[in-house]
Model the fold of this input.
Amino acid sequence: MKYEKGSSEHTLKAYAEDFEVFLGFCGEAGIRLFAEIDYRVLMNYLTDLSGRRLKASSLERKIASLKSLYKYLLREGIIKKNPADLLSSPKKEKRLPAVLEKNEVLALLESIPEDSALSLRDKALITLLYASGLRVSELTGLDILDIEYKQGVVRVVGKGSKERIVPTGDTARRLLGRYLAVRDEFRPVPGERGLFLTRRGKRITDRMVRYILEKYIEKLAVNKNVHPHTLRHTFATHLLENGANIRVIQEMLGHASLSTTQIYTHLSPEKLKESYDKFHPHASV
Done:
């Protein structure tokens, strides 16, 4: 998964946890060899998982990890039949992602001062999340050389180690310039190339980014569950609402499938009504 598929550390960790749960179940059932596992055993395992009241998305991932494991075992000749072939995934619960309104994004960014190296770092990274629609793992994975300051773009390595170029916008570009001017105040450890650093001069982590965002969100009267991915949803939705082509948005988000982009870029009811009133012949009857 790591070297052939280029899976992210997050995915590797999640699958490792899934395998540990599965092997624990097999151990309790007295099963020691993969050859002893048939479709009935797998169904008993899924029944056990269902009793834990997992979310549909968590159950779906556990089934996906099983299918992935058994494809590998079959390919390597460790098993002769694939009992996971008959497993079907539960229907995903489709929920619209939380999105910030334009005034809420503005209030968030205006609430972050620019009077210290720390606050400049915070404002630059939060602005970049919104301005370029980055995943938090992509943000923390950025190196200094990934910023093309004069061109106003950032080079991002996304899922599957796929590289893409995304615009930063003038506001993020200005803040990145100010932050880079004070980056040395974090006293980077020797050889550290990470763009955003901790107080100890090391590359910032995903968890730290979530903590920073939550710190500023708490000061605002925003009754929404806001996390770094919310800014990615917001980036895509605002682009779509302002007339951007959905395939361009797909490219900037780094989505392999257009259907994934359509989920992220839902239209608000107000925008739908506005389009209906403008274009449908019966709207004004």
Remarks:
- The beta strands are 147-148, 153-157, 163-167.
- The chain is about 50% helix and 5% strand.
